[in-house]
Amino acid sequence: MSTLASQDNEYIERGWRLLQRRPLVAPGRDYHWITDHVSSIVEMKTPLWWWISTLITGCIASFTPMLLLYLVCTGVGVWGLNRPVCWAWDITNFVFWIGIGHAGTLISAILFLTRQKWRTSVNRSAEAMTIFAVICAGLFPLFHVGRIWVAWYLFPIPNSNAIWQNFRSPLLWDVFAVSTYFTVSIIFWYVGLIPDLATIRDRAKDPKRKIIYGILALGWRGSNRQWRHYEKAYLILAGIATPLVLSVHSVVSFDFATSVIPGWHTTIFPPYFVAGAIFGGFGMVLTLLIPFREIYGLHDVITSRHIDNMCKIILLTGSLVGYAYIMEIFIAWYSGNQYEWWLFLRSRVSQPGLHLAETVAPYWWAWAAMFFCNVISHQVFWFKACRRNLYVVFAVVMCVNAGMWFERFVIIVTSLQRDFLPSSWGYFRPTWVDVFTFVGTLGLFTFLFLLFVRFLPMITMFEVKGVLPEADPHHHGDHSHGHDEHEGAQA
Amino acid sequence: MECQPAHYMRGLPQVIGMKRKYNHPEQPTTGKAYWKSVEDLAHTEHFQRYLEREFPENADEMTKDPLTRRTFLKLMGASLALAGVGLSACRRPEAHLVPYTKTPEWIVAGRYLPYATAHPRRNGAVPLLVSTYDGRPTKIEGNPIHPASKGKTDAYAQASVLDLYDPDRLRFFFKDGIESTQAEFFSALEKLRAEWAKDQGESLAIITEEYLSPTMERLRGDLTRLYPNLTWSTWEPLKPGFTEEALGEAFAVGKTEPRLRLVPDLSKAKVVVSLDHDFLNPSEGGLIGVREFSNRRRALHPGAEMNRLYAAEPRYTLTGAMADHRLRIPASQIGSFLTAIGRELALQGLTGTFATLIDTASKLSLPGQDIDKAVHELAADLKSAGSEGILLVGEHQPANVQALAIAINEALGAIGTTLVPKAALAVPSASLKEVADQAKAGKIKTVIVFGGNPVYNAPADLGFVDLFKKIPNKIHHTLLVNETSKVSNWVVPAAHYLESWGDALAEDGSYLSIQPMILPLYDGLTTVDLLCKLQNLPVPIGPEQVKKTFATWLTNPRNSVTTPEMIAESWEKHVHDGGQGTCQYSWEFQEPMFNPQSLSEFLIKHPIKHSVPSKDNIEIVKAHDYSMDDGRYNNNGWMQEFPDPITKMTWENAALISPTMAKDFDLWSGIKFGPIEGDAGIVTGDVIEITAHGVTITAPVLIVPGHADYSITLPLGYGRTMTGRVGEGSGFDVYPIRTTEAPYFETGATIKKLGHHYRFAVTQDHFSMEGRPLIKEAPKDYFERHPDFVSYTEEPAAFDHGFYNTPPMKAVHEWAMSIDLTTCVGCNACVIACQAENNIPIVGKDQVMRGREMLWIRIDRYFSSPNEKFVQDNQVLPHDPQMIMQPLPCMQCENAPCETVCPVNATVHNEEGLNVMVYNRCIGTRYCSNNCPYKVRHFNYFDFNQRPIANAKSESLFFGTSKLYEGPLAPKGSPETIMLQKNPNVTVRMRGVMEKCTYCVQRLEAAKIDQLDKAGPTPNVMIPTDSVQTACQQACPSDAIIFGNLNDPASKVVGLKKLPHNYSLLAYLNTRPRTTYLARIRNPNPKMPGAEYIGMAQLKELREAELHEHKESKEEKTVPGHAAESTIQPHGGQS
């Protein structure tokens, strides 16, 4: 960090700040350096910390399959669900993970289409994160059903009963949306990996390694023709993936928005969920990248500008989310729907009795946690100093992660626990199975990510190279910039 | 015969009572009959070894042995062996317990056969029609041709079928805790009989429950003639005998006490004043009372006449919930309250004996209630009603209070109109105290307890546990092992009433027949069998003895029946019809004369005590429990999980107190939300010690709004030390603090807070409607002015179209239901009826606390208190609220939110308007339940039908939860006998499946098939009008639930849906429910204090609507030319 800070000071000193965007890769880092540095992460001897953390996260990850087995052979009752709260942590976790899975494809596809070059340093790991998050997400709706052995009824498989699925049900839309998203994300990610896998193959000294990466690289030779096809394919895939980014979380939000339950039945949900997902996704990207950037010394590739940009996105989407929270409450009041107003005010915030706010709502703590984490915490990103301070950034993104979980919890549980008839009001309390199944998915997610950084290049080398000044055909002619930049770096 | 029921039951096969004997081919006397092979089984070595196996000398063991399929078959074998092979000769042709090899003509698989019988009760048996499938009784219905039922039942009758199949039932004879045989028992009796013969029965005491059986009475007479000195005592803990005492004094003729009772005829009552009398609880007041009261109250159109009910009671009861005016008065102040009414009546000019008996010095002390004005207005109303008024006093109130009430009723002219003198049902017998005294004196050597459980429920001061130790021979004849069996030498398995021949008297005194539906599962003896055996008569073959009683009754001089053929014919009809209709058993009842002299003397001798409960003088009331009665349903899972109609508590009892008292003693109870404490279905209460007359019991506290201050209600029947697996460990025992002196209430108790808490399982913890228009109600006069008031409190759906339409509902039948909230008393009979009909499992306390109870119909109970604000979550509770009930089955929405969200089409709509649940298709996403605004869908979180209830109860080491959480490691499988109860036409749902009310689709389908069959090629496929009933409707004693076909203009439901106060719950959601409600109409006396708030749960909205209307009419006034019309009230003016 200190080097970056000193470099920044130099820029300020030279008065180029107004003229020049900060470069995406630290000056002086050429093609070779990038290839070497990124590939070495995969090629170096496995560090001890990796073994330790993989072992630990692997153990934690094992909670999930064990507890899901227990769930299947005992009954969904091992979770704390009840009537009226028939969904709680299961769907909370599902939506949470799906939300996490948003930033990856957003960065890859939308930022690609909008020519946001800074995406190149972070898109690979963000996409990997997407896939792992969707894996974690998919477990919950699959296993939360009462009879998983007939879960195949969800798929339009021709059967002798000639019963089709109910295409009116948002849960069915979910099945299609999530599986499509997962498929496209994997393809997009893998396609994006091919040139880099070829680089690793080419650098490999171990013949086994050569074969494995060779197979994975699908015969990539880097010819001009290949590149032309590749870039077109990538562009098309980005085009396909872009609507999915918006659709999958919109569809997930329909699970709630199309219902009649106050707190769910809200038209604001699709954009609000998408904004929230991007917000949460970037939170998780930063959560992962900040430590790995430190560990692998990737400061020059994932520069403070990247972090700064992501912080700005967090600030933007977080503020959108905050707007949605407030607008929900406003509409609940403005519509005059007593059930909705009751839910927003008295179930989530406070229960004014004879004296205002005499008692807190049953889930005031969840709502307060959500509001603080998602609306207040990231307001510090208005200040550049905060966006630059990695400790602050890390603290805020951890808040964002927690806040996004709480948001889903608040939406799902607090709406269900107090709906129309006070006679059926209830309360949800998780059991240890709920908690550890979720903890297990956190472990699984981290475990998979650790495997990813060890075995696959976590930075898209070929794309990063493309944003180097050298990649610009006019690079050498552009004296006022490139040349001095080099000088600056050398100095 | 002068008493002939008008017609035979429609739809019943015209078969004769003794179904098996008459409807099966006679067994050949020679040759190997089929049942003999079973007999052969009984002789196998293996079986003999099983029979002879010794149980450990621990009575506990009797209930612990789980009944496996294997042992069950053996037991069936045993019953065959003992009856067919054993000593009692060929008592019954036992073969029919095995499946039919040749099906009798009228048995159709899947079709039930109804047989008439009766459920014996202390206040009169309930005439029943029991559905049997292949010889298994599965469902209890009321007997439609009998006036004491008219097809209706209560929760106890509904649940009694489960007792039959209780896997904990006593299955063997036990001698000193060791398994024995019937033969050994009979030889032991032989020896005892010799002793009794010697001392004329001096050493014999018999304690029975109140059976009200003519045959038992006859046999008792025979026995008394045989052993003239025996002591016969009838013990019913909830029948203290005060009523009989008061009646004896009021109608005494010289020294002879006429055997009579006063039966309320509520069909004639315009004003009902109920003083601590829960007559709307069908088990206390009887089904007739509920029906007549409701019929008089049904406000189907604005001008309808309604009766008016005043209730004064310490705790909230069903009667209090129904009352137009309810006064919360401690039980010990009821006498004072009655005195005050009497005084006021006298002041208002009512003359009669009572006027001279009023204690003028007595003073009612009820701080915070405008009691003087209330008494004044109540008395005025009662007086104006005159002979159409009735003053009822609970039978547990002291005799002097009841005597005064009789005097007042007499002065009003109620006796003979609203209170009809009738012959007493019970024959007087010795009190339990007399038995105890004799036992203390060492006179009694043998005590025989028929049913009942005196060791548990006798007054504590009698010390029955110790007394039993003194008596050398104790014989307990019982269905279930209990505290009394534990200390008895001989424990004799009893036959359930569904296994017995017998007879009984209904609450109206009519003569009922009891016939078996099934052979005794465990070779139990009936009381009649045992009584015969006591007098050395052979165990009767079939209905032998019962028939004899019947023949004696029939050949009464007033009858013309004499020939054996006529007797036989009448008998068949008697058994077939389940009794003699309204025909009374006692012929010779003479209407007695009111004796003011004797009554005055009695009241002067026993003046009404005036004790005022206060902070330092706490009253305790030992009351019946709605689910346990006196404790007899303790091992009945349905009754245990039955939510108390008032507290909504399951599996337990609690000391009920008022919010004021809780505040004064710093007692806390309620839901505390937060991550640590509190959960769906849990209410936590402080545990206190209650001390009265030197006895201390420990009980957790539950705060109930509307309870009298400084009075603690302690419901009886829990805390059993010796009971089955279901009842084990539930609740606390109140009997130790109950004495002969004060069986019902006493003052002077003290309480001490123990500092720890207890967690109750409740099915509804939020009891405020939070201003939502869920239960709509209005007082009668408002209803008359604004018949369509239901539309004021909720906007209709904004639009009536959508993307998707339900199937074209153009079928022949369009099912719909209407629930009348005016007449629903909230008795929960529908809840248990639904449970029995639809194979709904119980889930145990632990799961109820987690909010996972499965009852398909629930009764929501709310408190409304428009004149005082309360915040329930903050423990600011109303002191004197009104209570409103709302039964909630599936609403069968035409536009059902559950259907659109199911991803696999497991819940769909059919053309008849049913919201159909396809269990096989359900994968259990639970989305439908989330999206159900009424929350009437229930998810089977564990395999509740497959898990023995003990699993759900016992704590295991596995993270402190019940064994349900051990999954595959926990015992699995429902007890075999419980499976026998299941309705074969309803799927027994597995885990992971959503289930809900189906409008009893199995019944609808059966009715449709019948009609299709009848219609043949004709287009006449519509079932006869209202010929199909849902289980809840069929049980409902007040006919509040009406079900029918919307396409049948004659159907009742069509008319009800057209009424102005018909409304849909949450109509604004546009769910278009097929189940709609008729708003609750109350009939307050406008002069009573606080009357302006009665029946105004939506007070604010209704007032606004009225103000709006006034304003409009004023505006009209300003328009020139309209002034004259505008003075006329739009809806007919003030009442």
Question: Describe it for me?
Answer:
The complex is a heterodimer of chains A (491) and B (1135). Chain A has 491 residues and is an all-alpha fold. Chain A has a single domain, classed as Formate dehydrogenase/DMSO reductase domain (Formate dehydrogenase/DMSO reductase fold). Chain A has 18 helices and two strands. In chain A, strands 1-2 form a two-stranded antiparallel sheet. In chain A, α7 (170-203) packs antiparallel against α9 (224-257) and α12 crosses α15. Chain A is globular. Helices cover 29% and strands 18% of the residues of chain B. Chain B is built from 37 helices and 39 strands. In chain B, the strands form eleven sheets. In chain B, strands 20, 21, 22, 23, 24, 25, 26 and 27 form an eight-stranded mixed sheet that branches. A seven-stranded mixed sheet of chain B has the order 5-4-16-15-14-6-7, with helices on both faces. Chain B is globular, with a radius of gyration of 30 Å. The model of chain B is unreliable at 1-69, 71-97, 673-679 and 1118-1135 (pLDDT under 50). Chains A and B meet through α3, α7 and α12 of A and β30, α29, α30 and β34 of B.
Topology:
The complex is a heterodimer of chains A (491) and B (1135).
Chain A: H1 2-14, H2 31-43, H3 48-74, H4 89-100, H5 102-113, H6 123-143, H7 170-203, H8 207-216, H9 224-257, H10 269-295, H11 304-335, H12 338-349, E1 350-351, E2 359-360, H13 364-376, H14 384-388, H15 390-417, H16 432-455, H17 461-466, H18 479-490
Antiparallel strand pairs in A: 1-2
Helix pairs in contact in A: 3-16, 4-6, 4-10, 4-15, 5-6, 5-9, 5-10, 6-7, 6-10, 6-16, 7-8, 7-9, 9-10, 10-11, 10-15, 11-12, 11-13, 12-15, 13-15
Chain B: H1 19-23, H2 34-42, H3 45-52, H4 61-64, H5 69-85, E1 113-119, E2 126-133, E3 136-142, H6 155-164, E4 173-175, E5 178-180, H7 182-199, E6 204-208, H8 214-226, E7 231-234, H9 242-250, E8 260-264, E9 271-275, H10 282-295, E10 308-313, H11 318-322, E11 325-328, H12 334-347, H13 353-357, H14 371-385, E12 389-393, H15 399-412, E13 419-423, H16 432-440, E14 446-450, H17 454-457, H18 464-470, E15 473-478, H19 483-486, E16 490-493, E17 502-505, E18 510-514, H20 527-534, H21 544-554, H22 564-577, E19 579-584, H23 596-605, E20 618-623, H24 637-640, E21 649-650, E22 655-657, H25 659-664, E23 669-670, E24 682-692, E25 695-703, E26 711-715, E27 745-762, E28 777-779, H26 780-785, E29 815-820, H27 829-837, H28 845-849, E30 858-864, E31 882-888, H29 897-901, E32 907-909, E33 915-917, H30 927-930, E34 938-939, H31 949-953, H32 976-981, E35 994-995, H33 1001-1015, H34 1031-1035, E36 1041-1045, H35 1052-1057, E37 1062-1063, E38 1075-1078, E39 1080-1082, H36 1099-1118, H37 1123-1126
Parallel strand pairs in B: 6-7, 6-14, 9-10, 9-12, 10-11, 14-15, 15-16, 20-26, 22-25, 28-39, 29-38
Antiparallel strand pairs in B: 1-2, 2-3, 4-5, 4-16, 8-13, 17-18, 18-19, 20-27, 21-27, 23-24, 24-25, 24-27, 29-36, 30-31, 32-33, 34-35, 37-38
Helix pairs in contact in B: 2-5, 6-27, 8-20, 9-15, 12-14, 12-15, 15-23
